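Assess this:
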Amino acid sequence: MRPVLPDVDALVVDALREGLSGATVRVMWPDVWPDRLPLVVARRVPGGSSNPLGIDVALIDVQAAAMDRREASRLARVARVVLADACLRQRQGSDGYLSRFEDVTGPAEIRAGEPTAGPDLFRFQATYRVTARPI
């Protein structure tokens, strides 16, 4: 039987929660988000690849949001370091390990999309490629 692919979203979110004290970390934007700032939303997006050995190369979208532009920018940059370190340390979850990390884009400020940016919401977005393997 072929190995089951690890849950990359869980591996990434758990690593970010562990490394980002004081920030809410979620896979999806909450319906009511203003009281959850600073907020990091990290989830797998289309793209990437897998192989029969259970190695999963995933594209991860990471958005950092805060009420202050500098705080949102810093949160995005720290989230990048936390995720890269988790891959370097091969952080283990319940069904797999993170292993490789690669920048794809960002972090860069985004002013379009939902939720709408304004004087009390600043968002930075980045895309990373992470590799996960099963236990």
